[in-house]
């Protein structure tokens, strides 16, 4: 494989290719790495060129691949990486299949991420409600057992223990009446 250093001997050539064969010829020349292309129409706006739509499609596919790679790396899934090997350019009909596959994978992954977030949110809400119901059950059990003092009722709902771990809800109310008014509202959610 040659190089494109300035000291390398070069020859200026002009190729005329049929439009049907242009993609295959340019991809083969590009994979060799021995060719440098010059723009013969520098005054033409980038949006007026014939290949703009193909470049946009490639950019969109690259964006989807970067997103998929980021999600794979975030989840710690090992990926096969072959250093130094550049895959061949796919044929145009293969590009359509790749584009559809990338679109499908991206949509599925976004849906999975949204569902995982919703499940986590629901789990946390249900865990909170479970702990609220446990605290109210303890409160009512003590109340029915004859411990009728304000102090014992408050102690059942509010714990001052600083060593409490996650999984137990500590309500920040000082008055038992406020606590009891607040609990039915939480349970209705």
Automatic annotation (TrEMBL):
One of its GO terms (molecular function) is ATPase binding. The keyword Transmembrane helix applies. Residues 95-129 form a coiled coil. One of its GO terms (cellular component) is vacuolar proton-transporting V-type ATPase complex. GO terms for biological process: vacuolar acidification. InterPro entries: V-ATPase_116kDa_su. Pfam families: V_ATPase_I. This is V-type proton ATPase subunit a. It comes from Euphydryas editha (Edith's checkerspot).
